[in-house]
Amino acid sequence: VGGYVEEYEGVTLVTVRDAGHLVPSYQPARSLTMISSFLLRLFSPP
């Protein structure tokens, strides 16, 4: 699991595991997936 996606009242929170506050610096591949998924509206929270 690379992280978690939660949505509540129209707000989406993405948590990337093993990353600090600069996600692209710590987890570049995961951050690219996160940003691409956000732009393509592919998030599917439970």
UniProtKB/TrEMBL annotation:
What Pfam families is this protein classified in? Peptidase_S10
Q: Which GO terms describe its molecular function?
A: serine-type carboxypeptidase activity
Q: Does the keyword Protease apply?
A: yes
Q: Which GO terms describe its biological process?
A: proteolysis
Extract the InterPro entries matched here. AB_hydrolase_fold, Peptidase_S10, Ser_caboxypep_his_AS
Record flagged with keyword Hydrolase? yes
Extract the coiled-coil ranges from the record. none
The UniProt entry, under SUPFAM superfamilies, shows:
alpha/beta-Hydrolases
| Gene3D superfamilies cross-referenced by the UniProt entry | 3.40.50.11320
Tell me which family the UniProt entry assigns to this protein: Belongs to the peptidase S10 family.
Q: What is the name listed in the Swiss-Prot or TrEMBL entry for this protein? A: Uncharacterized protein
